[in-house]
Amino acid sequence: MSLFDRLSRLLLPAEAPVADYPFVASDVALYRRTAHPGDSVLDAQTWDDMLLPQYSALLAKETSIFGQQELHRRLHADGGTVAASAVRVRTLAQDAGQRQRLHAACTGLRRADREVSETLFGAPLAPSPRWIKLLPWLAPALLLSVVLALATGVVALWGVVVALWMALMAVQVLHHEAIEEWDRVRATLQQLLRSHGLLAALDDPLTADLRDDAAQAAKLNSRLSQSAAGNLPGVREYRDWLWQMNVRHYFASRDAVRTHLDLLRASFHRVAALEADLALARHLAQTPRHCWAQQGGELTLEQVMHPLLARAEPLSFALAGQGAFISGQNGIGKSTLLRTVGLNLIVARAFGFCYAERAVAPLLPVYSSMQSEDALEGGESLYIAELRRARELLALSERAPAVFIIDEIFRGTNHLESISAAAAVLHTLSQRGTVIVSSHNLVLAPLLEERLAPWCVSREGDGLRVAPGVLRETNGIALLAARGFDAAISAKANRVYDWLSDYMAHPADCEGIRNSL
């Protein structure tokens, strides 16, 4: 760096403080979609059903776009590389000092306000146009034409001056927006290369893989930098509008990125992976209840919890060669249990740990159906939405074994058809994968008991318990009074319930029930 540049930096304002830029979900997903297309075992509905947007936000605290994108990729991936990452996460979780040193070296990444994986892994950058070589000569030609016009008095020379000035203005106007956008991309890439160098400089075995090309990263970072003098008040406008330095640097830096794409991609992969591991280690250090999951064909979760619930009640849940049919009273926590199991299975596959005291988990894809609703804009009723999702699950089951988590299947049609359709779909799914379903249609339990073991969620003391069996005492009508309904409504509901119970056991004329309302 020249003496002039050093003095210039002293006159410039200090670097902006770290402020985590609020990237949208589509930006976070771009790395997976561009660098790892097709490498996903999660679909959009499962992502939402399992509350993975909220869970991702929990993990992403104090983490840049690079680490967020790597965490997102792992949540979608098949878990094939989880072992190597798990070793590093376990090491970092046990050493707060090491975490702090590495985190400090990565802090600059959080100044990035632009997603760059599309630049690095998407469509290739176009090479600089041939006319860019003429730019350095425009300013001297303009100055020379002004001197000649003043010295000779030839009016025609002023036309040349105007033409050259208009050419300079046209270049600026045509490239202004592209340069501003590229400056954000370039600044983000420089933060990546800078953190690469800072991490490599640490005497830490976890950053050894960054040392071999750290010198190359530093050189590329220097090539992408603009002279600090160009940011001094009044200097930048002169350099850009007359000498076209911003346009020239725009094309030169793009060519540098295009030429060193392999280096930038490798740096992205390694730095993002390390920052993601730091985020996971920091999270686990603040999470008392967690364990490293064992890989197995059967599912066992002892004292498992949901990480998004502040007052989660631990439960133990296990499957031995079958799926599960889960019943329980209204509001007891069946849906929470399904999300707890589903999220822990996804986390075990992606990161290698669970929020439990002990866990054995199969490394299988997880697909769910929990939030089907009427879609007024698309003209899709609840039942049609449920049928669409059931067809999607059946199609997914034909690809490879998976875990299917389903809450209240086929609510949108009448009782008999709901049971019939549910029994057919659930039985077929259970032949191809592991099904965990909750339903208030208790008659499904004996219909599917050969494929789905019955489990009942109940309250025991101050906690919840999951035990073999089917719900015996329902509370749907009792909740009418608890929610402020008139006693007469509860009485009518009980009369209808008694009649229907008797009718299903001994079908008869329904005239009596109409008279009782």
Automatic annotation (TrEMBL):
UniProt superkingdom: Bacteria
Residues passing through the membrane, by range: 137-168
GO molecular function terms attached to this record: ATP binding; ATP-dependent DNA damage sensor activity; mismatched DNA binding
Domain DNA mismatch repair proteins mutS family: 321-498
InterPro entries linked to this entry: AAA+_ATPase, DNA_mismatch_repair_MutS_C, MutS, P-loop_NTPase
One annotated Gene Ontology cellular component of this protein: cytosol
GO biological process: mismatch repair
Pfam families: MutS_V
Domain AAA+ ATPase: 320-467
Entry keywords, A to Z: ATP-binding, DNA-binding, Membrane, Nucleotide-binding, Transmembrane, Transmembrane helix
SMART domains per the UniProt record, alphabetical: AAA, MUTSac
Keyword DNA-binding among record annotations: yes
Database matches in Gene3D superfamilies: P-loop containing nucleotide triphosphate hydrolases
Xref: PANTHER family: DNA MISMATCH REPAIR PROTEIN, DNA MISMATCH REPAIR PROTEIN MUTS FAMILY MEMBER
Protein name, entry field: DNA mismatch repair protein MutS
Organism this protein belongs to: Duganella vulcania
